[in-house]
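Duplicate of #3305? Posting structure anyway:
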């Protein structure tokens, strides 16, 4: 047991720093052992349920010890699902987790159970980073989320707005070219990650805020903050996974890191607010209505600004990595870009429409490196749902709950092997473990048997409040779905009608269903535009004596662990 526990604690040790002292470590060990014994005596929480296949688990930590390093979670899930199947159930501490890695199972979740699985789990990190405020990407399914998403799609970055932001892309690309030209003149390599993070961060800030952070010509460091936020959101957290062990997150330094980054985020938002409240030439405050309070505005920003920069810059970096690794593809893409743009000395949106091969390169990049490799959804939770219900629904809900309580013995005999004591306990303390909500035409209905997820061979129970990971990274690399799946072959998409909309579950880089990415047009246009500029103006090579490291690391996105370093040579200004 001890070596396993040590491995488990290693998750945290990898990310935080306070584990160097032996006393807290020993204390921790003692606490955990007593916890394990307590739970061993307490018995299994999932008795009587037909759960999907799962690797053997340990008390308390469940399958945590089998997950290896968290920055490879998508790959670990992939390997485990090779053995346990495309619908795999994991016990991540106290969190029931379903890992989905086949197109049939994506269909089962997204077509047959889309609404129940349209929520997002809340976490210590999201609560502390955003002070309990919810961003559109982390909001539970419901009216609040619907309103936020509407702001995104209809107002903030509508299709029309994306087109109108053409000048922003052009100006920012020109600045990027200037930076690269400087590096060319010095003969120094470029850190591609730094370059494209700054580009996408500036584009996102200008398109959403009207100008860059720091004022005209200012430098927006939001990409960096977003990167830190992404890492923390994905980090190991004792409190989220094991009941009663939340105090250990302070010990590991996790809570401290969250508070620090939350403050950085607040400062960033404060600066934006200050800038926009400074009267412009006509003495009118810009953009922000004076009557809104600072707190309202923080809330708004938290909701809007997480998720756009890192995803886009990571995609550009992976595309450039594959192009440098595959000189033939690079040559073909460059030839097309240079032919279409000609001697105009400026890449335009209209040019991009004619770059067929470039579009294939972007599609293939998002197949092998879907920036959001694990789409994380959660089945709705009793308590949260209850809060969102209107009075009538809540009455109905309580009525059904009471009925169920009264029928405890009957239920126990006819349907389950639970003892009345267990079921009472489940109703009073952890209702979500046993009881699910069914969505009927007349609204949500409490069910006794939780959700059934059907496979072609078998029916399984999925406890309510289960977190679902759809592993699109695994689906995108499945050799049964893709010929030479591990190779970068943009041509596979020519003559192939598959698009980004997620209707074909074989290819879902932007997710699918209700929670899919609302900004795929904005993202794809930004990625294509950046790559076209990089290819038009410069030739690219790996610095002599260096090799490209392809290790992936999972934060909010799957990025390159070691940033791509490349030497540019100017194609036009020699
Ligand atoms: C290449 C770039 C991008 C990729 C690959 C990507 C991919 C995704 C994926 C896979 C999801 C989750 C889907 C699900 O859970 O089913 C998502 C959600 C989201 N994305 Fe993107 N995204 C990108 C760029 C952007 C940009 C530029 C923005 C905004 C400026 C953005 C805003 C969002 C938001 C707000 C959500 C949450 C939607 C919701 O929960 O309702 N994304 N994205």
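Output from current build:
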């Amino acid at each position: 047991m001890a070596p396993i526990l040590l491995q488990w604690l290693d998750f945290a040790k990898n990310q935080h720093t306070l584990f160097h002292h032996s006393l807290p470590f020993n204390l921790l060990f003692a606490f955990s052992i007593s916890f394990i014994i307590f739970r061993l005596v307490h018995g299994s929480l999932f008795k009587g349920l037909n759960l999907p296949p799962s690797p053997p688990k340990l008390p308390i930590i469940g399958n945590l010890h089998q997950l290896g390093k968290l920055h490879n979670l998508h790959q670990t899930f992939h390997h485990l699902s090779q053995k346990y199947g495309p619908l795999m159930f994991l016990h991540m501490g106290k969190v029931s987790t379903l890992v989905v890695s086949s197109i049939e199972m994506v269909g089962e979740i997204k077509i047959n159970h889309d609404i129940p699985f349209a929520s997002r789990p809340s976490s210590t990190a999201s609560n502390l980073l955003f002070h309990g405020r919810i961003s559109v990407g982390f909001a539970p399914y419901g009216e609040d989320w619907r309103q936020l998403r509407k702001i995104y799609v209809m107002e903030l970055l509508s299709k029309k707005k994306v087109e109108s932001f053409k000048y922003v892309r052009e100006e920012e690309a020109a600045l990027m070219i200037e930076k690269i030209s400087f590096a060319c003149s010095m003969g120094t390599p470029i850190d591609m990650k730094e370059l494209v993070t700054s580009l996408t961060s500036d584009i996102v800030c200008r398109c959403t805020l009207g100008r860059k952070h720091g004022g005209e010509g200012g430098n927006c460091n939001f990409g960096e903050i977003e990167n830190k936020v992404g890492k923390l959101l994905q980090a190991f957290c004792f409190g989220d996974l094991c009941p009663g062990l939340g105090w250990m997150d302070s010990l590991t330094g996790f809570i401290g890191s969250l508070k620090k980054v939350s403050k950085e985020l607040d400062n960033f938002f404060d600066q934006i607010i200050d800038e926009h409240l400074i009267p412009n030439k006509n003495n009118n405050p810009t953009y922000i209505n004076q009557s809104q309070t600072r707190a309202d505005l923080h809330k708004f920003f938290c909701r809007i600004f997480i998720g756009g920069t890192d995803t886009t810059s990571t995609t550009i970096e992976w595309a450039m990595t594959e192009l440098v690794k595959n000189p033939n593809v690079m040559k073909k893409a460059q030839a097309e870009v240079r032919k279409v743009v000609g001697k105009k000395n400026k890449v335009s949106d209209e040019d991009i429409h004619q770059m067929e091969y470039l579009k294939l390169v972007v599609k293939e990049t998002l197949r092998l490196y879907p920036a959001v490799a694990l789409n994380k959804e959660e089945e709705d939770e009793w308590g949260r749902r209850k809060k969102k219900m209107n009075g009538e629904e809540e009455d109905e809900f309580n009525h059904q709950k009471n009925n169920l309580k009264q029928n405890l013995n009957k239920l126990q005999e006819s349907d389950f092997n639970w003892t009345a004591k267990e079921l009472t306990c489940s109703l009073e303390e952890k209702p979500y473990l046993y009881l699910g909500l069914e969505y009927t035409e007349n609204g949500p209905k409490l069910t006794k048997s939780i959700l059934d997820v059907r496979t072609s061979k078998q029916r399984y129970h999925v406890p309510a409040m289960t977190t679902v990971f759809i592993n699109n990274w695994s689906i995108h690399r499945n050799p049964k779905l893709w010929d030479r799946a591990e190779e970068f072959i943009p041509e596979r998409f020519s003559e192939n009608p598959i698009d980004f909309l997620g209707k074909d579950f074989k290819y879902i880089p932007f997710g699918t269903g209700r929670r899919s990415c609302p900004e795929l047009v904005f993202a794809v246009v930004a990625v294509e535009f950046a790559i076209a500029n990089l290819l038009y103006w410069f030739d690219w090579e790996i610095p002599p004596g260096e090799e490209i490291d392809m290790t992936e690391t999972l934060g909010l996105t799957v990025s390159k662990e070691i940033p791509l370093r490349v030497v540019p040579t100017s194609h036009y200004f020699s």
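Confirmed duplicate; merging threads. Residues 136-137, 149, 152, 157, 204, 307-308, 311-312, 315, 370-372, 375, 377, 509-511, 515-519, 522-523, 527 surround protoporphyrin IX containing FE (CB under 6 Å). Residues 380-465 form one domain.
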